[in-house]
Amino acid sequence: MIKSIFTIMAALLLSLTVTAVNATPVDTYEFKSVENQKRALGLAHSLRCPQCQNQNLIDSNSPVAQDLRLEVYEMVDAGKNDAEVIEFMTSRYGDFVLYKPRMEAKTLVLWLGPVGLLIIAFIIGFIFIRKQRIVATEVVEISAEEQSELDKLLKRDDK
């Protein structure tokens, strides 16, 4: 009885220790309001980690992402709006931190490229299908000599 209580207490203490080791100051940040927390988490989800490159600030475990998460949290709690936070991040790390790039002259290819490729694919497909139809509808006429030779071959195959 005492041994089982001791085992349960040890397991509980171990589980609390393990979870405390994984907690970081960024993960335990206390916001001034629930609205600020939602806004900050939304911003951190929309910003890419400069070190990991394919993860947002929330999903990344890198030290850079932890620092940037904390920076975003503090800026939101300080009363800065989303545009100011994004402007700060892009001025510091460039447009790379944005998952959705801005519509500018230098990013026009990113926005219009897929549409352009789709239009080109439709044009090529249309031309290809049209050529196939033209080739299939052409009637090839053969001479009487070629027709008699064909008849002989077909009669020979029937036997």
UniProtKB/TrEMBL annotation:
Transmembrane segments: 108-129
Keyword Cytoplasm tagged: no
Xref: InterPro entries: C-type_cytochrome_biogenesis, CcmH/CycL/Ccl2/NrfF_N, CcmH/CycL/NrfF/Ccl2_sf, For-dep_Cytc_NO2Rdtase_NrfF
Family: Belongs to the CcmH/CycL/Ccl2/NrfF family.
A Pfam family this chain is assigned to: CcmH
Main function: Possible subunit of a heme lyase.
Top-level taxon: Bacteria
Keyword Iron: yes
Protein name according to UniProt: Formate-dependent nitrite reductase complex subunit
MF terms (GO), sorted A to Z: lyase activity
Signal peptide (residue range): 1-23
Alphabetized UniProt keyword annotations: Heme, Iron, Lyase, Membrane, Metal-binding, Signal, Transmembrane, Transmembrane helix
CcmH/CycL/Ccl2/NrfF N-terminal domain span: 13-154
